[in-house]
Automatic annotation (TrEMBL):
Membrane topology value: Multi-pass membrane protein
Name the record gives this protein: Cation:dicarboxylase symporter family transporter
Keywords: Membrane, Signal, Transmembrane, Transmembrane helix, Transport
Pfam family membership, one: SBP_bac_3
Organism of provenance: Sheuella amnicola
Entry keyword Chaperone: no
Amino acid sequence: MKLKNWLLETSLTQRILFGMVAGVLTGIFFGESTAHLKPISDIYLNSFQMMVVPYLMLSLMISIGQLSVQGAIRLTRYGLILMISFWILTLVLLYFLPLTFPKMQNASFFSYELIEAPKKLDLLNMFIPVNPFSSMTNAVIPAVVIFSLAIGVSLIGIANKSVLIENLQLLATAMLRVMLLVIKFSPIGVFAITAITAGTISTEDFQHLLVYFVSYYFLAGLLIFILLPIIVTHITPVSYRELMRSGKDGLVLAFFTSNPFMAMPLMSEQLNHLMRQKDMFCQDATSTVQALSPTVLTFPNPGKLLVLIFVPFAAWSGGEYFLQSDYAEMLIVGLFSVFASAQVVMPGLFDMLGVKQSYLNIFISSGVVTSNFGAMTSAMSLLSFNILGIMAMTGHLHFSPGRLLRCLAIIAFACVSSFFILRTILPFVVSDDYTKDESLRSMTLKESLPVIVTKELPPESSAGVSTLEQIRARGALRVGYIENRFPFTFTNTNNQLVGMDVELANDLAKALNVSALEFVQVSSGQVNSALVQGRIDVMMSMPYDMNSFEDLRYSKSYFDTVIGLVVKDEDLYKFKSVAQIRERGYLKVGLSTDDMGIAQLFKGRLKGVQVEFVEIKSIGDYFDNKYPDLDGMFMLASSASAWSILNPGFSVVVPQPTLLRLPVGIATHRLNEGLSNYINYWLSIVQANGAIDRAYAHWVLGKDVNKRVRRWSIKEDVLGW
């Protein structure tokens, strides 16, 4: 009974905050076990999103369609100009904000996203819907907004529109009731989302999230207390003190309720009081402007646009590099997208900057913390809009060149100095400790046969080709390996030879019923002769080479590899596409002797481009900047990704469309048909059992590399449950 009374007495905002706090505590207590709450999170999100797009369409049609012709002209003349001015100011701030993010050393294992062609943005279909119902289904918000505005504008001049608008309002009210019903369950939904995030988020991701919070609060404060007041006080007779005095109660109310609509009546009353004090009250102008207030809050405003900060933040946090031109494109699309709920439009905006969709839950959870400042910024935008609108309609705006120049100068100074302060603060918020190279070098095998590693080639076999019987009689499988061929064969911090090839060779040796493995170091140029002379039995993970088919026999392919370029981070954008390389007309890249054959194939695909190869004996020399005149380093993308982890500051790029894919198999002597057939049968079995996929995911894709580092929780680490 007490719980029921408490629920009835507390506001929804208080219950949501309680759900958030309870979620955080649950996540800290149970840790990764909170992942089981995901179905609750999904049900809440899907239920909320169900009505967002239809309600958005109806609200826009109604708010625009019910205007009179005179009201529409006034809206266009004053409201649109003011709104666009606010948009430009906010978008400029958002455009330069990522420049304040601290530089971080970041790299990642190979990802399939490297070889996927980027999604082409079809701006025409995004804004001009050929099929508006398809746009609704796929939540293409800009197209939905344009369609709704077109219907709303067309209704303005229709004489008997009231019947239709009343019916639309009735339908919108029904949808709103459904949304309000879902919103009542927000404390439960927020609890589940926050618990999952708090229980599974890594320390590194949490530190990164602080960068988002600080940036968001900083930009909100800049707009609320400096930029918007500067504009109002410089072109109207209203002083800073008068502005803040008339708006303080509404701003506080919007902050604590997280709802700028709640502050609208209070702000209207305070504004009327201010206008009467200054003998500037005009009932007609005040009524017209304040009638448009709901539209101001429905349309994008600085408070709603602040959520776009999360997209470049997520790209920065995930180590995704993007051009400012791509970001500008995203901001334009985002401007027309925030008409709807941010959680509906974020997935599409993530795709534009290559952000992983897993950041959506983090965004939703963080919204509980940032929504107060967003609502407060929206309330300040509404107050500024109303004052400027009333002053414009009553002729009290002052547009003297001196005032405008002074206003612009103060805004520029405030922005530059604020961004400088933010850029100084943020590096102290996040740790720049880089440990991914340690994670790579610390990788180990789960279990292994006894391994003998030799750097000298054994004598040539007098028996010629090693048969299955001879290998079993020897008691060891002799495998060739290339030193530091990450992530296939390399020496870890325990001075053990590890990698995908070592794991697969262990499985093959067990299948052959031998008791040991002998790894023999070879160079790429020695592989053919070592196999032909019987010095080694097999060579793992060898890309098919047409020039070797006369000497070697390749097993069936068990994965494909692609060619990539390792370049400095700042040069990444120059080689994103084959078209960019062809425009350059010249490419100077380094490569190791091991990759010479494949490099010639790559060169043949770049017709019209002069490609110069510079042979590098030690790959490490390239990363030590001993070849500063090179455009990049030519490598297999899977190996290149591992090298970029060891050398942060370098990134891997696979020019699109992908020029060259090569199947990879196990090489044996051409005449060793028995061993080759056995390997093919063995590969069929281990592929069917998923062993190849698991090895590839672990060593090449880097999944579960840090699996041993479990999230700390009270349940397991304190209570030992």
